[in-house]
Write a structure and sequence with these properties.
- InterPro entries: APOBEC/CMP_deaminase_Zn-bd, CMP_dCMP_dom, Cytidine_deaminase-like, DHFR-like_dom_sf, Eubact_RibD, RibDG_C, Riboflavin_Biosynth_HTPR.
- Converts 2,5-diamino-6-(ribosylamino)-4(3h)-pyrimidinone 5'-phosphate into 5-amino-6-(ribosylamino)-2,4(1h,3h)-pyrimidinedione 5'-phosphate.
- Pathway: Cofactor biosynthesis; riboflavin biosynthesis; 5-amino-6-(D-ribitylamino)uracil from GTP: step 3/4; Cofactor biosynthesis; riboflavin biosynthesis; 5-amino-6-(D-ribitylamino)uracil from GTP: step 2/4.
- By secondary structure, this protein is an alpha/beta fold.
- The chain folds into two domains: about 130 residues, Cytidine Deaminase, domain 2 (3-Layer(aba) Sandwich); about 200 residues, 3-Layer(aba) Sandwich (Dihydrofolate Reductase, subunit A).
- The protein has ten helices and 16 strands.
- The strands form three sheets. Strands 11-10-9-8-12-6-13-16-15 form a nine-stranded mixed beta sheet, with helices on both faces.
- Strand 15 and strand 16 form a beta hairpin.
- The longest helix has 13 residues.
Length: about 350
């Protein structure tokens, strides 16, 4: 099961909104096949694992280890439970039951009804952590929310406005290694979210140009539609969703998706509902300070990744404040990256 979790991580990003499942086949103590979830729309982990076995006759005496309950319904691909039964695999070990309403125990029931010996709950906590995006989406009806920012040694997220250049551009606190890591993170989440001020001040592209992988959906809070076509987020290069209170379609840019928010009510909950509605399993919130603090104050965040640099601003925009369990602290050059979980 540990190996199944390990290879499953290869699906982080491309597999979404499917879960990134890992599957391993063992015969007589020897690994004979393994696989992980293909990019969305492609074969599931069980299909890839079975397909990797050179001698299919061994499947009738093999044990399949899988991080999540095999599916029992027709989606973009046929049910994995049916494939397991077809190949007469006698034993299946499952890490975690699938909370998806179309599965939810039905895959295991189908296997047992066909005479397959099924064991569940193996490395369950590790599998839950691995599948945290998928589980949050289906159990809490919202995406898994990752907050990210860089702050100076004296606790500022951005310099005083008088320190900025005349043209909008990022003012880097983190080093090049941290920035590349951030681009890797972007490739792993389905969406990236920023507020109006971040766009107006930094003019970010919000893509993965320093890494390989799929660009996330750009989600921008723009209450009054202050952002114009001079900014990268409206260039049409990547899918973009603008959340606004303005319902005048004549002000919308072609090729950009717009959704209406009621800013007099709980904005963060509305954002979570919209992202859940459009099947977004996870979102990376990159700021600025007001947007990040809004998620923190609402209690709607799961993980925070905070870079602390060596520079000092002495004045500027203060970094957000949060409490949570620090689960990791890693040096990146002269900087420190701390990972917090919302406990």
């Amino acid at each position: 099961m540990s190996r199944a979790i390990e290879i499953a991580r290869n699906g982080l990003g491309p597999a979404a909104p499917n879960p990134m499942v890992g599957a391993v086949l063992v015969h007589d103590g020897q690994l004979i096949g393994e696989g992980f979830t293909s990019p969305y729309g492609g074969p599931h982990a069980e299909v890839n694992a079975i397909g990797s076995v050179a001698d299919k006759a061994l499947l009738k005496k093999a044990t399949l280890y899988v991080t999540l309950e095999p599916c029992s319904h027709f989606g973009k691909t046929p049910p994995c439970a049916d494939l397991i039964i077809k190949h007469k695999i006698p034993s299946v070990v499952v890490g975690l039951l699938d909370p998806h309403e179309k599965v939810a125990g039905q895959g295991i029931a189908k296997l047992r009804n066909a005479g397959v010996d099924v064991i569940t709950g193996i490395l369950e906590s590790e599998c839950r952590d691995h599948h945290k995006r998928f589980l949050t989406f289906h159990e809490k009806k919202r995406p898994y929310i990752v907050l990210k920012w860089a702050e100076t040694a004296d606790g500022f997220i951005a310099p005083d406005t008088t320190e900025r250049n005349e043209n909008p551009e990022p003012y880097w606190i983190s080093n090049s290694y941290s920035r590349q890591l951030t681009h890797k993170w972007r490739s792993e989440e389905q969406a990236i979210l920023v507020g109006t001020n971040t766009v107006l001040e930094d003019n970010p592209k919000l893509d993965v140009r320093q890494w390989t992988g799929k660009n996330p959906l750009r989600v921008v809070l723009d209450r009054k539609l202050r952002i114009n076509g001079d900014y990268h987020v409206l260039d049409g290069s990547n899918p973009t969703l603008i959340l606004t209170e303005i319902a005048e379609a004549s002000r919308y840019y072609e090729g950009i998706d717009y959704r209406i928010l009621d800013f007099s009510k709980d904005v963060i909950s509305q954002i979570c509902s919209i992202l859940h509605e459009i099947n977004i399993l996870s979102v990376l919130v990159e700021g600025g300070a007001q947007t990040l603090q809004s998620f923190i104050d609402a209690g709607l965040w799961d993980e925070a990744r905070i870079f602390t640099g060596t520079s000092s601003f002495k004045k500027g925009i203060a970094a957000p404040h949060l409490s949570g369990k620090i689960v990791a602290s890693t040096p990146i050059g002269l900087e420190t990256l701390k990972i917090h979980y919302n406990d």
